[in-house]
Backbone:
């Protein structure tokens, strides 16, 4: 299938993409991503490998559009952290526990339950 990425035409096939990505270790996903086989790759990494261009020359949208047309599953956002996982908002502020004071968080008086 003919795809245009960074103003250059490429003839991409599903099997060609699978072969190109075989043995490639996925980088950490921070934005748009593509599931190829059982692995999830950042769209920019896939584009860099398939086109051999600098990732600054194309957008993640161009890559995800092409991969979607080839039948791969594309994701807009990275996988969310586990739901309900506790987040310590006072980390690094020197404020212990789940009870924070407004002065520690916002510079104002009074306790605030988080």
Residues:
């Amino acid at each position: 299938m003919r795809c245009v990425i960074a103003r250059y035409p490429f003839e991409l096939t599903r099997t060609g993409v699978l072969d190109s990505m075989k043995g490639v270790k996925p980088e950490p996903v921070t934005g748009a991503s593509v599931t190829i086989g059982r692995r999830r790759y950042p769209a920019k990494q896939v584009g860099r490998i398939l086109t051999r261009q600098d990732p600054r020359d194309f957008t993640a949208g161009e890559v995800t559009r092409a991969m979607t047309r080839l039948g791969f599953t594309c994701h807009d956002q990275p996988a969310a952290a586990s739901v309900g996982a506790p987040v310590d908002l006072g980390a690094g502020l020197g404020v212990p526990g789940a009870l924070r004071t407004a002065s520690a968080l916002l510079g104002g008086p009074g306790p605030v339950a988080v």
Residues 45 and 76 are 15 Å apart (CA to CA). The chain has a mean pLDDT of 81. The radius of gyration is 21 Å. DSSP finds four helices and seven strands in the chain.
